[in-house]
Design goal:
alpha/beta, Rossmann fold, Histone, subunit A, six-stranded parallel β-sheet, 54% helix, globular
């Protein structure tokens, strides 16, 4: 079980494909936006050819109109791991969504139990007050309200129940973890470059996204019968182009803002990754070839006693 992490545009997707191909592995995506169908260019999904050649998991699993949580990710990821293990194949997990990686490694804290009296009161209020419960949730826990549909009464009630039991928002529990040691025996490889080189790669990637048709992709998504949900609309690359198409900004300014926001994301990823233990970091040179990077990663895996595939 190999986990490859790195900031956005670090080259981890290409490395994951190469390693999976050489080891006979299947790939699990750890990305909060690649889960959305038809959001392809802006999320940097693997090319169609790659996905036809190898088995990928947790890509294109929900509609852009739907919410998606770290808990849902973890359920799907654990299911994929068990499926791949049943086929006796190695696993390559790859991604940059740090919260999801943390959850995959350490598991999520389950939070408090239930209180039937509080739950019954909330159910009764839901029948008579309707959307008032959602407004209440938005006031006390905006992070949870952003992920929960105003029509999802069950989850709204649970979130309010947790707050009434503990005095803390449910989102604070969803960001806690069960263990100090990884739950599974992952070999973790991190790709790391100098900040200036990472920024250069990010800027180049944004340019490629625009040239590949990101604007038309966003137009198509906006034209669908079901509107983009809050999470999908907030995705970097999509939020800025939506503002441009709405006339709030020029295309040039939107592109520059995508670059800026992506660089900020990379900074946050670097901060998160510092908290991860037992990562074998590969410090990459600006002009280092993919073949050399692949060789270093493969040697790291082989030296750990990892067995598999066509090595």
């Amino acid at each position: 079980m190999v986990l490859i992490l790195g900031v956005t545009a670090s080259g981890k997707g290409q490395l994951a494909f190469g390693l999976a191909e050489s080891l006979g592995a299947e790939i699990i995506s750890i990305d909060s936006m690649k889960v959305y169908r038809r959001m392809d260019i802006g999320t940097g999904k693997p090319p169609k050819e790659a996905r036809e050649k190898l088995s990928y998991h947790l890509i294109d699993v929900v509609e852009p109109s739907e919410a998606f949580s770290v808990a849902t990710f973890l359920d799907l990821a654990n299911g994929a791991i068990e499926q791949i293990k049943s086929r006796k194949r190695p696993i390559i997990a790859v991604g940059g969504t740090a919260l999801y990686i943390k959850a995959l490694l350490y598991g999520l804290f389950k939070g408090p139990g239930t209180d039937e009296q509080i739950r019954a009161e909330l159910r009764a209020r839901a029948e008579t007050e309707g959307s008032e419960l959602y407004r209440e949730l938005a006031a006390i826990d905006p992070a949870a309200a952003e992920r929960i549909s105003p029509n999802d009464t069950r989850r709204i009630i649970r979130a309010l129940e947790v707050y009434k039991i503990t005095g803390k928002p449910i989102s604070s529990f969803q960001n806690q973890f069960n263990a100090e040691e990884p739950l599974r025996d992952w070999k973790i490889i991190g790709l790391r470059r100098e900040k200036a080189e990472e920024n250069k790669r990010i800027n180049a990637r944004v340019k490629r996204m625009i040239e590949a048709g990101l604007i038309d992709e966003v137009k198509s998504l906006l034209g669908e019968e079901k509107p983009l949900g809050k999470q999908a609309r907030c995705a970097i690359g999509y939020a800025e182009i939506i503002d441009h198409l709405s006339g709030r900004t020029t295309l040039e300014d939107a592109v520059e803002l995508i670059k800026k926001n992506t660089r900020r994301l990379a900074k946050n990823q670097r901060t998160w990754f510092k908290t991860f233990a037992d990562v074998k970091w590969l410090n990459l040179e600006p002009e280092e070839s993919y073949e050399k990077i692949f060789g270093r990663a493969r040697r790291t895996i082989d030296n750990s006693g990892f067995e598999g595939g066509n090595g």
